[in-house]
């Protein structure tokens, strides 16, 4: 997994409309990038709703919030509409961003091993350098903790 001091990888993602973009487009201002396993599941929904509830505070600080999963853009659009989400949702269908950030990991559930996205958040500075990493995120209170770190910049 990427660590503090590493640079944001140059990967191409699709937004909920299916339009390509890269994280490099956000150079010049800090950015929050969070990875979540799957849209419209309880933990991922709560995390997206928490970031959305604080979206005005992140915007006031000039920091966009981008949530990344391997879901297709159409599913992300439906997810955003269903819950009124205002954070940027990005599709990493090919897994390139997950691989580059190191969030595609082996997981275990009831003794069964499988590959999946580890919930993690990255705060990068205006120059693209990662300033803080939250690995193995627990959803409750996380968005507020990230906002505190943003305010400390």
Explain how this protein is built:
By secondary structure, the chain is of the alpha+beta class. The protein has a single domain (12-151), classed as Glutaredoxin. The chain is built from 5 helices and 9 strands, in the order βββααβαβαββββα. The strands form 2 sheets. The chain has a 7-stranded mixed β-sheet with strand order 2-1-5-4-3-8-9. It has a two-stranded antiparallel ribbon with strand order 6-7. Helix 3 links the parallel strand 4 and strand 5. The longest helix is centred in the N-terminal third of the chain and has 12 residues, at 42-53. The protein is globular, with a radius of gyration of 14 Å. The two termini are 23 Å apart. The mean pLDDT is 97.
Task: Summarize model confidence as the mean pLDDT.
Answer: 97
Low-confidence stretches: none
Major pleated sheet? 7 strands, mixed
Distance between the termini: 23 Å
CATH superfamily: Glutaredoxin
> What is the count of distinct domains?
1
> How many individual helices?
5
How do the strands of the widest beta sheet line up side by side?
2-1-5-4-3-8-9
- Helical content class: 25-40%
Count the strands? Answer: 9
Strand pairing plus helix content: what structural class? alpha+beta
Would you give the CATH topology? Glutaredoxin
The sequence of SSEs as H and E is: EEEHHEHEHEEEEH
CATH architecture: 3-Layer(aba) Sandwich
Shape: globular
Strand content: 25-35%
Task: Supply Rg.
Answer: 14 Å
CATH uppermost class: Alpha Beta
């Amino acid at each position: 997994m990427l660590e503090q001091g590493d640079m944001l990888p140059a990967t191409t993602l699709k937004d909920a409309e299916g339009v390509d973009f890269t994280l490099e487009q956000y150079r010049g201002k800090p950015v929050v990038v969070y990875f979540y396993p799957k849209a419209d599941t309880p933990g991922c929904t709560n995390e997206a709703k928490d970031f959305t509830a604080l979206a005005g505070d992140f915007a006031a600080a000039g920091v966009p919030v981008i949530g990344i999963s391997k879901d297709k853009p159409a599913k992300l659009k439906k997810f955003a509409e269903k819950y009124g989400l205002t954070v940027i949702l990005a599709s990493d269908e090919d897994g390139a961003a997950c691989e580059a950030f190191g969030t595609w990991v082996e997981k275990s559930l009831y003794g069964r091993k499988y590959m999946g996205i580890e919930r993690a958040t990255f705060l990068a500075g205006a120059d693209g350098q990662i300033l803080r990493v939250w690995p193995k995120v627990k959803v409750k209170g996380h968005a507020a903790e990230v906002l505190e770190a943003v305010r400390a910049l």
